[in-house]
Design brief:
The protein is an alpha/beta fold. It has helices spanning about 15-25, 35-55, 70-85, 100-110, 130-135, 160-165, 185-190, 230, 240-255, 255-275, 310-315, 335-340, 360-375; strands at about 5, 65, 90, 115, 140-145, 170-175, 195-200, 210-215, 280-285, 295-300, 320, 350-355. The chain is built from 13 helices and 12 strands. It binds pyridoxal-5'-phosphate.
Length: about 375
């Protein structure tokens, strides 16, 4: 059996998304910037996709900018949000994805900002009181806090934080890459400055995402070139990707309740099975359903002598999971997230992340392998 439990790294394309993209690939090859019929036809397709995304997020199409993915959207929101608004202080947490952390660190190193890192607890929750104190002492700050952590799944109350940022006239960006299409984002209600999405996290294609920019928040163009994306991001649009992204988001929204219930059920089942079969199993991050992204489960195993071998052993058993962010694999420093929440470095941790295509039978198979691995080493 081959099991794919690494859906926080990327997801399989939904066949309906493939179908929508192939149709455009075959028949709609015009350049959306061309003014002739072939171009106009494709321009209409891109704008229809933008309208779909905006409609689902309850915002205006003029606030949606297509990008090459979550990383570009995060980089743009942070760098342009800070540099174009005369911001000299930023607040984030040590748990952010590197698309956020490294961008802010580069700005700090260049001397553009002073960067404050919020304290986090063992469950991966940021210190909101400290945030308020910092905001009160530094008005017009840039705040970047992710909605759900991609490694441990802990959710942050971005509604509360957006209200706090409004109160202190600060700019708020949230990396929503892991929650986009998994929860309803009502951007009119949220009153946030920037959110980001990446299609490959919700059964869409890789290499395409979007940045929402609140119309009251002003930034300069982020890629100079042609007039694409209303002069903000030059370069011929990734038309197939954009169509796939909109289709994937549309499908996710129409099936969201069923998927949430089903995937949360899988996660609950995996937690129960682990507790039953693996003595002294622990979990990294908050696993209560109301405070935890339902697609992610980060497990800390007792078999300490398996530290370097756990993922490899799972892999050769046909199970794809991960030790943390896929973007950081290949670096020899362990997970910055697990380190920041004080997880025991002696115990191997594995992130299992689920999607609508996974089954209980797959969980049973994985539990069987884990049992063998841990007991063999006990
Ligand atoms: N932010 C988070 C929380 C992520 O999990 C990821 C992808 O792993 C990204 C940003 C980057 O997105 P992309 O792969 O589209 O560049």
């Amino acid at each position: 059996m081959q099991v794919y439990f690494d859906n926080a790294a990327t997801t399989a394309l939904d066949p309906r998304v493939v179908e929508a993209m192939v149709e455009i690939m075959e028949f709609n090859y015009g350049n959306p910037s061309s003014i002739h019929a072939h171009g106009r036809q494709v321009k209409t397709i891109v704008e229809r996709a933008r309208k779909t995304v905006a409609g689902l997020l309850n915002t205006s199409p003029s606030e949606i900018f297509f990008t090459s993915g979550g990383t570009e959207a995060d980089n743009t929101a942070i760098a342009r949000g800070i540099l174009d608004n005369g911001i000299s202080h930023a607040i984030t947490s040590p748990l952010e994805h590197h698309a956020v952390l490294h961008t802010l660190e580069a700005l700090e190193q260049s001397g553009a900002i002073k960067l404050s890192l919020l304290d986090v607890d063992r469950l991966g929750r940021v210190d909101v009181q400290q945030l308020e104190q910092l905001l009160a002492n530094n008005p017009r700050t840039f705040v970047s806090l992710m909605h759900a952590n991609n490694e441990i799944g802990t959710l942050t109350d971005i509604e509360y934080i957006s209200a706090l940022c409004k109160q202190y006239r600060s700019i708020f960006h949230s990396d929503t890459v892991q929650t986009m299409a998994h929860y309803v984002h009502d951007l009119t209600k949220l009153q946030i400055d920037f959110v980001t999405g990446s299609a490959h996290k919700f059964h869409g294609p890789k290499g395409v995402g979007f940045l929402y920019i609140n119309h009251q928040t002003k930034i300069k163009p982020f890629i100079y070139g042609g007039a694409q994306e209303r002069n903000m991001r030059g370069g011929t649009e990734n038309v197939y990707g954009i169509v796939g992204l909109a289709k994937a988001l549309e499908i996710a929204y129409s099936e969201m309740d069923d998927h949430q219930r089903y995937i949360q059920g899988l996660k609950d089942y995996m937690i129960a099975q682990l507790r039953e079969h693996i003595p002294d199993v622990r979990f990294n991050g908050d696993i209560t359903p109301e405070n935890s992204l339902y697609t992610v489960l980060n497990v800390s195993f007792p078999c300490t002598d398996m530290s370097d071998m756990m993922l490899f052993s799972l892999d050769i058993s046909g199970i794809s999971a991960s030790g943390g962010s896929a973007c950081s694999s290949g670096s020899d420093i362990g997970s910055h997230v697990l380190q920041a929440i004080g997880a025991d470095p002696g115990r191997p941790s594995v992130r299992f992340s689920f999607c609508k295509n996974n089954t209980r039978e797959e969980i049973d198979f994985v539990i069987g392998k884990l049992k063998a691995l841990c007991l063999e080493k006990a």
